[in-house]
């Protein structure tokens, strides 16, 4: 009888909490692709127009030193989805069929190991309905499919890039992984501009799940190449030329899509109980798309700040201050533990995490640095940021050392003035590397040569 009374009390508590609106927060991750660090109004752009993202930044906390765990998109997404340095399980390099060395896995066999739980799995376990809309890039084979990796719903494409317009599925030059897929194995093209379509699908998911906690991972392919602006914007930004003009138009489409999703949350009365994060998968590829990472040096595929530091916004009304900024280094690895803790879970119970819950730092509950040390690695290249010191190791030149707080543009190499510190950081980086798995797949060596060229070519950025 006593146990029955206790059970009844528990039921009353649950019903009361629902009646008073206490519910796990919805979580929306807005994720752009290959955007330039400086190509947003909230990050200082005077040329690109991003009014909705600027408004989002003003309603929450802007992350001024937010890092991806890789300088290219496949590995950075693997780190985000697992909360672990992706090199720990061998996802060190981009997985792009046709670009790979034959010394390891190739083609559709490259992907996020199936035994490692994803952010989607963890949130499903907490009762969330999970959906991904857009780019997956965690493996083309069926065993890697999002609906088998923690996501209840998927509308997007399995590969790493595609056109913003419809493909002809009968065209032999179009890979199956580039076609738009609904759920598992149902392929049909959107019939509309891709950026708009993904926002539409995310909004429909939000409406379908308005009565329960949901996680929407909106992985735009904007503003990745090909340079396909929406024809309706053809007359805009006449002061810009070439790829720069196309990029500005594609970024405006991204901004409108973000605004559409935010409007849906407001329309359904969900905004006050929704944690929103906006960020980007790696630094902008200045050579391919003319993305600007100013004032940071470098670009995509390099470990200079312009290759790994990305825009970041975190919004949670009533929990986080508006029009605020956070200046200490944070990582994409922090998103998983942050979302799990926000959803009522215990991130400390998840084995192997390298990220931390960001929220206590953003609220001021915790002082100090969320991370004393951050690491990056690709083949022979390795980078360590320890406090405000950053050391980069290369296969084709001596190591370089920068004090990032004083020199975020990395224009003053202090390695020769601090040989002991270089040696200490070199050893600390190597000790971390010795804990990692060998890569499951590797790109052809010539792409490391291309990365070295990019390092030199984009050593400085211009506004």
Give your account of this protein's structure:
Helices cover 29% and strands 16% of the residues. It has helices at 2-19, 51-58, 73-82, 119-125, 194-208, 242-267, 286-289, 305-308, 335-342, 359-363, 419-433, 446-457, and strands at 26-32, 61-63, 66-67, 129-135, 153-157, 181-182, 186-187, 214-219, 274-280, 309-310, 312-315, 324-326, 330-331, 373-378, 381-386, 389-393, 400-403. The strands form 3 sheets. It has a 10-stranded mixed β-sheet with strand order 7-6-5-4-8-1-9-11-2-12, with helices on both faces. It has a 4-stranded antiparallel β-sheet with strand order 14-15-16-17, with helices on one face. The termini are far apart.
Low-confidence segments: 1-21
Shape verdict: globular
Determine the strand fraction and express it as a percent band.
Answer: 15-25%
Tell me the total number of β-strands.
17
Helix share bin: 25-40%
Number of discrete helical segments: 12
* Helical/strand content category: alpha/beta
| Global mean pLDDT | 94
